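Hello Y.,

Per our agreement to keep a running log of every chain we model this quarter, I'm adding this entry. I've kept the format consistent with earlier entries: sequence first, then predicted structure.
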Amino acid sequence: GSANTANFNLQYNGTLTGQLSAANADFQVSAVGSSTPMSFYANGAERMRLDTSGRLLLNKSGSPSAGNGSEAFVFIQGNTSSTNNPAVLGLARGQSAAEISSGATLGTITFTDDAGNDFAQIKAASDGGSGTDDHPGRITFLTTPNSSSSPSERMRIRADGKVFVNNTSL
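Predicted structure for the entry above:
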């Protein structure tokens, strides 16, 4: 490669199985052959797999029970028998609780088309001032009405447990 490119071959028992390459700020991993999933290991155990359908599987090596393989798919499975360690999807804001003001959005799940048009959103936000071991939060659900291009809040669950539908000022 050039001065800005590094290539590394991945081998298993002397057979080329894939390639790692870094060019400028990009880092790429490629598998050889279209019928081979890409598996990533830590401490001798498979932790992540990109299967041949393009689905990302975390802590799961077999095929997921949902999905038919033609859709984008992320599957997270907690591999423990403990009831206190379920699979978790975390969204975090890059500030400490003391720096987050009331009303600040903490994370958003957005449902869009491939052009980036928003159809619906689920948002989590701070719902009051934070203190030591006191972090009130709320969840809002937004949908985009007909003849509009941006989602509007339709339902809110506040930190005090009150649920508001089409009215968040009560």
